[in-house]
Amino acid sequence: MSKLHLGLFINPTGQHMAGWRHPEVPSDFPVNFQAYLEMARQAEAESFDFVFLADGEAVKAGRWTPESLSRTASRFVAQFEPFTLLSALAVTTRSIGLVSTASATLGEPYRIARQLASLDLLSKGRAGWNVVTSYEADVRANFAHLPPIDIADRYRRSAEMVEVVKGLWNSWEKDAFIRDKESGRYYDPARLHALNHKGEFFEVRGPLNVPPSEQGRPGIFVAGSSPEGQEIAAAHAEGMFTALSDLSSARKFYTEVKGRMAAHGRAPDELRIMPGLVPFVGETRAEAEARQKQLDELVHPAVALQHFSFVLGGADLSKFDLDKPLPADFIAEQSEKSTRQRQVLQIALHAGHTLRQMCVLSTRAKGHVTALGTGADVADLMQEWFEAKGCDGFTLMPATTPPAFDDFARFVMPELRRRKLVPEAYGTSPTLRGNLAR
């Protein structure tokens, strides 16, 4: 029987917008290597498949006011560059996978291929690349040579980028490096292949000047829910991150993505779909509710309103009454703009939440499913989604780091083990791809 797969998203400021204000959270976590290391080692002790880091190449101000931006730590204000951080974690952990985001819109394929191949060697085959197509104005302003690019071109560029990176990772065949001092032969030239790629967006000769690792090449992940992203994942990825808030949507998404794989000659089990999960856990349900309420009360009103506006693509919310539900015509109009906005707004429509309530709710999980209660309650939700084919596992997104992860490890992991839902240990020679195949 296949097992439930688990990854840990280490958000240094916590998934909850007020997570950084929790009294037990190190205020300097984003630049505190020891804090990252302790969380990674704890996830490794629990036999998680991987840890995952997001990335942002700008202070993402967008339409945020200086007042609200200065009250949040979650807009990539100041934190480590992820490949540098994962390289340090590679030599201080032994078995857990190490996955980082790198933009396929901003990056160059040779550089991304080289960085990830190097991380894969350092970690003995535990590296993974999370492919994203982000291209915010704040980021583009730091890369003046890059022209504006529309969303359709971004996805085509990303698809070509993945093809080129994979081609570069195949530059060297296994055992190409002889390193025979007696004969004077360092490598077998018959086992070296130049890529010579010429496409719509890239022209890359190759070969890559980094040899393959124990797992052959780094794993590939795709983040998002769009049809274009689904297609890239179905063709290339070992894992997929997505935001899903209910089981019905999750089952539909799961079936759709897996159904695309046969056209690419791949079996459904070659891709692990792992939506984000934000747990609020306590010894009792009342304790879990108190922890959630504590964080909700720490959200500054300006941050809550600004964040919900950001979730809705910068929509102007100032004209609406905070203590009334959003108008149905506004919800319908905004729902047409993106999958994430539709998911968030449908919650408001069905629950009858006021704008003020929606602002606070948006700071909790940012569109991802939440689970609140005892360890058994959270395990029930996870088991239900897994057995109903709504996912292959979850990417855990603790509301606070590390307190909420400590709670998950203390209350939920023993319950998952009792139900025999998670692997007990790593393999004898763990790689990221090997972890995902357990």
UniProtKB/TrEMBL annotation:
Q: State any single GO MF term.
A: oxidoreductase activity
* Keyword terms of this UniProt record: Flavoprotein, FMN, Monooxygenase, Oxidoreductase
Q: What class of enzyme is it?
A: oxidoreductase
EC numbers, comma separated: 1.-.-.-
Is Flavoprotein found in the keyword set? yes
Luciferase-like domain location is 31-387
Annotated InterPro entries: Diverse_substr_monoxygenases, Luciferase-like_dom, Luciferase-like_sf, NTA_MOA
Lineage, top-rank taxon, reads Bacteria
Q: Name one Pfam family in it.
A: Bac_luciferase
Listed PANTHER family:
ALKANESULFONATE MONOOXYGENASE-RELATED, C2H2 FINGER DOMAIN TRANSCRIPTION FACTOR (EUROFUNG)-RELATED
Give the family per the record: Belongs to the NtaA/SnaA/DszA monooxygenase family.
Protein name per the record: LLM class flavin-dependent oxidoreductase
Give the organism the record lists. Answer: Rhizobium puerariae
